[in-house]
Amino acid sequence: MMRLSPFNVVSLTLGFVFLYLPMLILVIYSFNASKLVTVWAGFSTKWYGELLSNDAFLDAAWVTLQVAILSSTIATVLGTMAAYVLVRGGRFFGRTLFSGMIYAPLVMPEVITGLSLLLLFIGIGMDRGVLTIVLAHTTFSMCFVSVVVSSRLMTFDQSLEEAALDLGASAFEAFRLITLPIIAPAVISGWLLAFTLSLDDLVIASFTSGPSATTLPMKIWSSVRLGVSPEINALSTILIGLVTVGVIAASITSKQSALRAKRDEQAAARAQ
Hints:
By secondary structure, this protein is an all-alpha fold. It has a domain at 54-227: MetI-like fold (Orthogonal Bundle). It has 11 helices and no strands. The protein has helices at residues 6-29, 46-52, 55-88, 95-107, 110-123, 130-154, 158-166, 171-200, 203-208, 216-224, 230-271.
């Protein structure tokens, strides 16, 4: 087992402190009894109760959850299809243009993406609301799903698919019964990444939202401009907890799926 040098230990410690110390301070002050966020006045959970009775935050949270689930699901389906075409499609006319259009949002500034989508929605006469935010989030998160799934497909053993085809399965059946279960951890990871990006987005949602659709990051930003309140700290703590639980659950699920797929591949190899 390789041991870390003192320099690496110091670098990792400073890096983790820089990243997670502000979050830890935020979590601690979410239990502050004082209305002043920088003055500690004792332990209290009253701001969580105040948050749960704030209809504006609850409505924004519901809109954000709807948008995140819908956009991440659509982005996962489209991103997986795009990754499969790019990896398995070989060379075809327009491949360079297709891959460039898929991966363009990775390097495109969010302001440019949001402005272009806003002009598109205005040009076609579409009213801005939940649907436009879903379409916008699908557009910029699909490329991230495609990258994650492509990396798994590149290391996929195609002999398993060929064996299924030789046994009489159709191309769709081979994909559904062989390929999809094996790449499922990558697909799940892509969905979680798209879901997180949608929850976190502020810039694109600000361009494509309407008066009837306000996401949680937009509500937090508008509230912070008037001053940080303890309710914001409580809301941020809840979000940190949800993300932490989701990451741990996804990690455990992905590891179990990978181990199960590896056992299935070994069993298939022994059967041959």
